[in-house]
Structures are given as structure tokens and as C-alpha cells.
């Protein structure tokens, strides 16, 4: 059981040439729009001016071969946390994400890039779990784009732990918000429209993140 998560996503929107030796990929089946994030869910959880209680994590997986990237459409989707008011034990989105990655048994002979777009940066505990996974799986790299910083006890140490483990961490800008809109949202062909204050808040969050990362550099 995966817990609270999306059932699937649309596929086939980004294509690169398949590098020699990479596994052949089947064409993605027709997608069901009901399996995408609806517009309100996306806005309520990723709008960086808001402070939602939930955490959503959208992810995609690519095989790397030099400068080429091969998207694995069947390994693309989203998960969310399970709150205290829901059946079962509360659990963070990152834990569901790690469960899913481990279930794939990714080929250690290939190099994979995992890219996450998350509404909050990982807490200290989840950051440690992600760092441990990276330490055990050198064939996997992790890139995290966060809408906002999760300011709870130990959050700075968690971010530094992730960076030390090799994860790349950045704050989402309009470019990443648009990418999520186009790939993980049932937008009904409507274009992404940046909200008022997006870039100002993004820059504020970015400055804070850089200040945290600078402590590691020093």
C-alpha cells in the first residue's frame, strides 16, 4: 500500500534520443486526466505565498548517458503525506517516495536522475532518510526543487545533510512551477499563469536557502 498518492500522470510530452545500450521503452498508454493533480490542489499546495499543511511531491525519473536524458514515463507521478486526521499512521511524502523508488529495483548498471518538485523542503528526519538512500545507491542522483522551506527544528541540518550526500537542492522559480503545471496538472490546455508575488517570494526563499548552504561551505 502506497498510502496517499496520485494514481498516475500523463506521459510522452518530453522525448530525447535513446542512447545505445539503454533499455527500450514502451510507448506510454493513454492517460486518465483524473489521475493528475487538479488545478486547485496544485495552486493551494505549491503557491509559494501560502502555507499549506499538506506536502505534495511530484517526481520524474530519467536515465543519463553523457548529455542525453531518457525519460521513463512509467516512473513519473506524485505522492503526498498522510496527515494525523487520516486513517493509519501519519507519514511524510518523502517516505512514500522512497518506498516507490526501492520497489523499482533500478538497474545498478545504469545512472538515474530523480527530479522532485516538492511543496516543502524535507524535514530533518526525511532528509536523513534520503541521504541514507543516496549513500546506498551511487547510481542514483537526486535533484530537489522546493516551493518553500519547511522551518521546523533541525531543518537547516537536514538541508546540509542532503547537500553533503550529493543531492542538488534549489528553490522553485516560475520555470519550475510552469514545468509542474504542464506535466503534473490537469490544466485542460490552459497556460500557466504566475501569481502575484511569485518571483519576490521565490527570491526570498532562495536567499534563505543560500544562507543555509553557505554555512556548509564555510
Automatic annotation (TrEMBL):
The keyword Hydrolase applies. It catalyses: a 2'-deoxycytidine in single-stranded DNA + H2O + H(+) = a 2'-deoxyuridine in single-stranded DNA + NH4(+). Residues 51-162 form the CMP/dCMP-type deaminase domain. It holds the Pfam family APOBEC2. It is found in: Cytoplasm, P-body; Nucleus. Its cofactor is Zn(2+). One of its GO terms (molecular function) is cytidine deaminase activity. PROSITE patterns: CYT_DCMP_DEAMINASES_1, CYT_DCMP_DEAMINASES_2. GO terms for biological process: cytidine to uridine editing; defense response to virus; DNA cytosine deamination; innate immune response; negative regulation of single stranded viral RNA replication via double stranded DNA intermediate. Its EC number is 3.5.4.38. One of its GO terms (cellular component) is nucleus. It comes from the Eukaryota. Keywords: Antiviral defense, Cytoplasm, Hydrolase, Immunity, Innate immunity, Metal-binding, Nucleus, Phosphoprotein, Repeat, Zinc. Belongs to the cytidine and deoxycytidylate deaminase family. This is DNA dC->dU-editing enzyme APOBEC-3G. It comes from Neophocaena asiaeorientalis asiaeorientalis. The gene is APOBEC3A.
Amino acid at each position: 500500500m502506497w498510502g496517499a498518492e496520485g494514481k498516475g500522470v500523463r506521459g510522452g510530452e518530453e522525448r530525447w534520443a535513446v542512447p545505445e545500450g539503454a533499455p527500450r521503452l514502451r510507448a506510454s498508454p493513454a492517460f486518465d486526466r483524473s489521475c493528475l493533480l487538479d488545478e486547485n490542489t496544485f495552486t493551494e499546495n505549491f503557491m509559494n505565498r501560502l502555507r499549506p499543511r499538506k506536502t505534495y511531491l511530484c517526481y520524474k525519473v530519467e536515465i543519463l548517458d553523457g548529455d542525453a536524458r531518457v525519460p521513463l514515463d512509467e516512473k513519473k507521478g506524485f505522492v503526498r503525506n498522510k496527515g494525523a486526521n487520516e486513517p493509519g499512521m501519519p507519514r511524510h511524502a518523502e517516505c512514500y517516495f522512497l518506498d516507490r523508488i526501492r520497489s523499482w529495483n533500478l538497474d545498478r548498471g545504469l545512472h538515474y536522475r530523480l527530479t522532485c518538485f516538492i511543496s516543502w523542503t524535507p524535514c530533518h528526519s526525511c532528509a536523513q532518510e534520503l541521504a541514507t538512500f543516496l549513500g546506498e545507491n551511487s547510481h542514483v542522483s537526486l535533484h530537489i526543487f522546493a516551493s518553500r522551506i519547511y522551518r521546523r527544528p533541525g531543518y537547516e541540518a537536514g538541508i546540509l545533510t542532503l547537500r553533503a550526500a550529493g543531492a542538488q537542492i534549489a528553490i522553485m522559480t516560475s520555470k519550475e512551477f510552469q514545468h509542474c503545471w504542464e506535466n503534473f496538472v490537469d490544466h485542460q490546455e490552459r497556460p500557466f499563469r504566475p501569481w502575484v508575488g511569485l518571483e519576490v517570494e521565490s527570491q526570498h526563499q532562495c536567499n534563505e536557502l543560500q544562507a543555509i548552504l553557505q554555512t556548509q561551505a564555510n
